[in-house]
Amino acid sequence: MPAESTLIRIHQAAKAEFLEKGFRGASLRNIVKSVGMTTGAFYGYYKSKEELFEALVGEPHDYLIGRFKDAQREFAQLPHEQQPEVMGDISGLCMYDMLHYAYAHLEECKLILCCSEGTRFSGLIDEMVEIEVESTHTYLAVLNELGRPSPKIDPKLEHILITGMFHTFFELVIHEMPLRDAENYIREMRAFYTAGWMKIMGQ
Asked: Is the pTM of this model over 0.85?
């Protein structure tokens, strides 16, 4: 059997096992057995369960983080006086891009969001929250520079609101909302959070 088709079968069996039991509960023995190969033969493809999981979700994880960082960078590079006018636009486009990517790679993204405890990928939302917090602070400095200073924002509240935003976004993926509905939810969610942040920032 060609190595490529064997690899596809390994990946399919691994996705099923990880989605059902999570990374920690998944059995490499079950994956190997369901493909009908020996453990020794499996190690010709991957050295460990961790490496197999990484092969499934590494690229989607890196895309989501990379797309989000790109959006933050794009916003920060705009002329300062233009930033308040387009605050919701760039992040909104980013959310749509991430949503469409996630729906095109649904199983892999669900593995990251629901089944990755025990791996480095379980911190996806925390990574995004930290990036957003840093970007928010940079934007507050821009508002101050423009003579539109924001009232002091409690760091705990800031963290809770940003974390809640990402959990709200990824709930759409986890529950596999119909894509058209998910797009509408994002539009309303963005309007809700943008209006809320503008209020908190005194804008």
From this structure: yes
Q: Is the pLDDT of residue 1 over 60?
A: no
Distances 61 to 58, 106, 126 between C-alpha atoms, Å: 5, 12, 13
Share of the chain above pLDDT 70, in %: 98
Structure tokens at 177: 């909302």
State the Cα–Cα distance between residues 148 and 168, nearest whole angstrom: 29
Chain segment 44-60, per-residue pLDDT in tens: 999 999 999 999 999 99
**Residue 85 binned pLDDT confidence (cut-offs 50, 70, 90):** confident
CA distance 14 to 23: 10
